Amino acid sequence: xxxxxxxxxxxxxxxxxxxxxxxxxxxxxxxxxxxxxxxxxxxxxxxxxxxxxxxxxxxxxxxxxxxxxxxxxxxxxxxxxxxxxxxxxxxxxxxxxxxxxxxxxxxxxxxxxxxxxxxxxxxxxxxxxxxxxxxxxxxxxxxxxxxxxxxxxxxxxxxxxxxxxxxxxxxxxxxxxxxxxxxxxxxxxxxxxxxxxxxxxxxxxxxxxxxxxxxxxxxxxxxxxxxxxxxxxxxxxxxxxxxxxxxxxxxxxxxxxxxxxxxxxxxxxxxxxxxxxxxxxxxxxxxxxxxxxxxxxxxxxxxxxxxxxxxxxxxxxxxxxxxxxxxxxxxxx
Length: 333
What we know:
- With 333 residues, the protein is an alpha/beta fold.
- The protein has helices at 11-22, 55-65, 79-84, 86-106, 140-159, 190-198, 226-241, 259-270, 294-300, 309-322, and strands at 2-6, 26-31, 46-49, 69-72, 111-117, 162-168, 170-172, 205-208, 220-221, 223-225, 247-251, 257-258, 276-279, 288-289.
- Helix 6 packs parallel to helix 8 and helix 6 crosses helix 10 (309-322).
- The two termini are 27 Å apart.
């Protein structure tokens, strides 16, 4: 299939492009390169530079490349930033996605795989979080994703656009061959920050809170290998192409890893000391966030190929060690 990958030059999107190619599909990347990197894309993959907030560029992309399905990774995703600048999140994540859906409608494209987040559950009542937990987002980022999920339901009923929504937490790791990996600027994710500390690029790794009701006092999160996320997206695409109805799935390892566990795994993998600085809690950080992915395992036959924390960290380390400056100075492009 010809698949438009919105945000395909970003971290998860670029891994998705390679997964699509390996599965025999023809990806087309639509990206404004604000946070994405042209260097992350394989040679020969079509890249359309454009923004979701510029409908003319979207419609031109659909007309030129005639995709049969769309995967959407072009979201802002920093919780703290969403609280400080909610307008950015409602504009990019909601208005931008609406523009994408309007372009799909005009081009009669009816298959959509949406990258959502378990952050829309807010403070969970049960952990691991089941698929049918009530959405109760507590920040603009989660709100923006929940808004899009409700739009997708209406789009299905009114226009027959079928979708699979995948709600996940912490994508991590890199391709096992170390060719592409995680390069955010600035970086906010724990595993790359720990590995940058191991490389001597940071003096210490900050641990935000050591008094949570967890075995070691630090927050527990669900880290899922980025290639395992991509395999779930491929299964979702196959499911929709075979006529499957719209679905929303939680996607995670099903096990949580504490901040200290991540640091210890990085010490084992890198052999570095990795200094730690214990600081106070951040507002709004729940003690434990783990996704229950039982339903997608049962419905689509998905299972993670790289569930071990040490493997996830080792693949990320291979990338960071061979690309200490990321894709090169200058950020996107």
